[in-house]
Write a structure and sequence with these properties.
CATH architecture of the largest domain: 2-Layer Sandwich
Distance between the termini: 44 Å
Radius of gyration: 21 Å
CATH topology of the largest domain: Dihydrodipicolinate Reductase, domain 2
Low-confidence stretches: none
Strand order of the largest sheet: 16-15-14-13-7-12-11-8-17
Largest sheet: 9 strands, mixed
Number of strands: 17
Shape: globular
Mean pLDDT: 97
CATH superfamily of the largest domain: Dihydrodipicolinate Reductase, domain 2
Number of helices: 10
Bound molecules: nicotinamide-adenine-dinucleotide
Order of helices and strands: EHEHEHEHEHEHEHHEEEEEEEEEHHE
Length: 387
């Protein structure tokens, strides 16, 4: 039985494109009853030309520069929030109150207070909801999690994450406007902590369990930039770089580093786990490869033969690997855009009686708590417990 799912896309930028593509693609690769339809889209009046081009290219029927009008429409089933962080709170709450299914990009909110209100709203309305921590649906990352859950890493001692980029090194990069709203704390909430480390924290807690406490250091390298909206030079107070230490509840310790000033790094999202039985390493710039070091058998605890120890590079494209049986033949890779398709496939499955989708907003609230604790620790120069 086929069920039409009319989508209102809030945002016509990077994520507007990534999500539109995934909604169009999902039924072609995953058998699902729900049939997403790109019904309506929103962008700012300032971005009207981009919005019209976006609507024409992706086939949206209705174009709006007032997002509230779209959310209120009776012919919309699902609201997909792909606008900057300062709008997530109001968009999600309005969508929930209108009884819509809600998808929201990460980070869930500007801060924990907003996130708590959003969780309360979706739970009160009883609407299905998801937060787009799409990296959980990179096949190699899903396999990373599977191998940890199979006990092949054993007792974990270390977790090490980096998320580095280099696109804000020049003083000439303005703040404000599409993409560069990330440099304006009033719109982004925070710098690399909410933008990049939110991903690293979500993945870390998913794989290695809850973080108990953190101690952090942040740095703003360039403190004034021209604002694209006002044309004036204005203060910049986002964290350009953030490093923190973490203690996990399982007794392991972690280091997290993120910056937009790592010359040469574009989307260097890496993480490694080291346990007594093995280790794993992943790098998003090499997304089909999972590196695995096998030291001991998970069942017997016995060390594997000496001549077979060493790092193994698993090309994660076999039918047995997460998500891959839905795509091409073994050896053929998929890409960044497929992480969104895989996410929507799982989300639609959850609407059709499958496993509850994670992360939902309640789960993303947890990530928001860690982000807020990291920023609080950097301000106070102290360890901060996660409530
Ligand atoms: N899951 C991921 O890996 C990932 C990747 C990129 C972005 N994101 C998240 O997606 C959301 C949207 O990010 P994006 O990169 O698509 O943004 P973008 O700058 O490419 O697009 C922004 C959209 O919001 C509208 N908008 C409304 N108010 C605005 C303002 N004050 N400044 C700029 N644009 C404004 C614009 O018209 C446009 O439609 C953010 O929450 C971001 O953190 C997630």
């Amino acid at each position: 039985m086929s069920k039409r799912l009319n989508i209102a896309m809030l945002g016509c930028g990077f994520m507007g494109r990534a999500h539109s593509n995934a909604w169009l693609q999902v039924n072609h690769f995953f058998p699902r009853e729900h049939k997403p339809v790109l019904k309506a889209c929103y962008g700012r009046e300032e971005d009207r030309k981009k919005l019209d081009e976006f609507a024409a290219r992706w086939g949206y029927e209705i174009v709006e520069t007032d997002w509230r009008k779209l959310v209120a429409r009776d012919d919309i089933d699902l609201v997909d929030v792909c606008v900057p962080n300062h709008m997530h709170h109001d968009c999600v709450i309005a969508a929930a109150e209108a009884g819509k299914i809600v998808v929201c990009e990460k980070p869930l909110a500007m801060n924990v207070r907003e996130a708590e209100e959003m969780v309360a709203a979706v739970e009160k309305a009883g609407v299905p909801n998801m937060v787009s921590f799409n990296y959980r649906r990179v096949p190699a990352i899903a396999l990373f999690k599977q191998i940890v859950d199979e006990g092949r890493i054993g007792q974990v001692f270390h977790y090490r994450a980096t998320y580095n980029q280099d696109y804000t090194i020049s003083q000439d990069v303005p703040q404000g406007g599409m993409a560069l709203w990330r440099l304006d704390s009033r719109v982004a909430g925070s710098g690399v902590t909410g933008d990049l480390l939110a991903h690293s924290i979500d993945t870390a807690e998913w794989i290695n369990g809850p973080i108990r406490r953190v101690t952090a250091y942040t740095k703003t390298f360039i403190t004034e930039r021209r604002h694209a909206d006002t044309g004036k030079v204005e203060k910049v107070d986002i964290d350009d770089a953030c490093m923190f230490l973490a203690e996990f509840e399982n007794g392991s310790i972690g280091t997290f580093e993120s910056t937009r000033y790592a010359r040469g790094r574009k989307n260097y999202n890496t993480f490694e786990i080291n346990g007594d039985r093995g280790a794993l390493f992943f790098d998003l710039e090499d997304p089909h490869i999972l590196q695995f070091f096998r030291y001991a058998d998970p069942q017997t605890g016995k060390k594997i033969e000496d001549h077979l120890t060493g790092w193994q590079r698993i090309h994660v494209t076999n039918f047995e690997h997460p998500y891959m049986k839905h795509w091409w033949v073994p050896g053929c890779t998929i890409g960044y855009e497929h992480t969104f398709t895989n996410s929507f496939a799982d989300f639609l499955a959850s609407l059709e009686g499958g496993p509850k989708f994670q992360p939902d907003m309640r789960s993303a609230l947890r990530t928001q708590r860690v982000c807020d604790a990291v920023l609080d620790s950097a301000r106070r120069g102290q360890w901060v417990e996660i409530p």
